[in-house]
Design a protein that fits this description.
Blueprint: H1 12-40, H2 46-65, H3 68-82, H4 86-109, H5 111-121, H6 126-139, H7 143-158, H8 162-186, H9 190-217, H10 226-229, H11 232-265, H12 268-305, H13 308-344, H14 348-380, H15 384-405, H16 410-437
Amino acid sequence: MAFNAALISISNKDLFRVAIPIMIANVSTPLLGVVDTMIIGQAPDPALIGSVAIASLIFTFIYWGFGFLRMGTAGLTAQALGADDHGEIRATLGRSILLAVTIGIILISLQHPISELAFYLIQGSFRVELLAKEYFDIRIWSAPATLTNYVVLGWLIAIGKARHALALQLLLNISNMLMDIFFVLGLGMGVKGVALGTLLSEYGAAGIGVFTVFTIQKRLPGSWNMKRIVAKEKVLKSLSVNGDILIRSLALIVVFTWFTASSAALGDVTLAANAVLLHFLTVSAYFLDGIALAAEKFIGESVGQRSKRNFIDAAKLTTIWAAGIAALISFCLLICGPAIINFMTVDPDVRALAKDFVIFAALAPFIGVWCFQLDGIFIGATATSFMRNSMLFSTLLFFVTWKGLEDFGNLGLWLSLLSHFIYRTITLYLKLPKVIKAVGHNPSN
């Protein structure tokens, strides 16, 4: 079976063959947290729920920062696919897995300072913190597997095997649920059982994932070439791309952390109301991420082909669909938002405040979709230095905006967040012509 990307424009069918499996996989992920909470919640001890929530949040922040492993792998692999460079498709996989395992081992070796810092920043009661540390001390050992899964996901998406990526994600989530039930409800292991279930499911998925991608790569012409994997030029390119995305991700974490901290400073009711509303944005992102990932793949292929026409066609088609889906999501949230808020919380004060600001959360998908799409386009083109600089500058403007609107309380906070999306869109869009120009020209297209 040969892998090559034909020099033709993508169709709606091509787009959704990639996007829909990703959307389904994304939606399954938050359900896992719900099941974890439901299972641990069967014990008559609220500290158990709190400890799992805190520890899970810590890992969410840690692994969010290493999302570059998925994005960088997808962009570089898609470009190699577009260039019909089978050796580089294989080498990118090997290079990325080595990087993921190395980072995972480093995280394990630094688990004690990471734990101390994390629990200093996110404090709970003595019992909650004690249980959360038990969870952390077990789950941190899954770091190499978790990061390897990121690489496998990015590589599969880039070569057009989104269904395989979906299957692996569902395998991970379902096995995690079953193991939670076995260890927690069956063996009564409590928080340790939840952590152990996650640990084993991550390694199980990583093992099957690596077996899957190694089986697929055997269909490529040629064979493994270790010299190519560790070639200085390619390694430096990979580190540069991944480093840019890491900095971008950390800046984004800073924005949302500040948003949460500022919400807390405005009182418990504001914190709770904004937490409910941020779930709207999170779930929206799960759907829009499917289109953005498809953009990464098809843009990367067009860059590898050196086809400006395919680049522009891919950018237009993915953006049109992303904008349409975002508009539909925003409309649904405007209409159904109050009812969803009532379902998510029973506190009358939280309900009232959340409904007052639901319009901002509802508008966020449509305002944010443009920068989400541009992120996907720039990652596919591996124009990550522009994306890094855009995020850093936009983050600076976010704080300037927040300071100017601080006296407006929660209104100023939401306006600052939405402005951050707009700043990112403008700064990226201004660089888009330069990215397109750098694609080059393929005489055969």
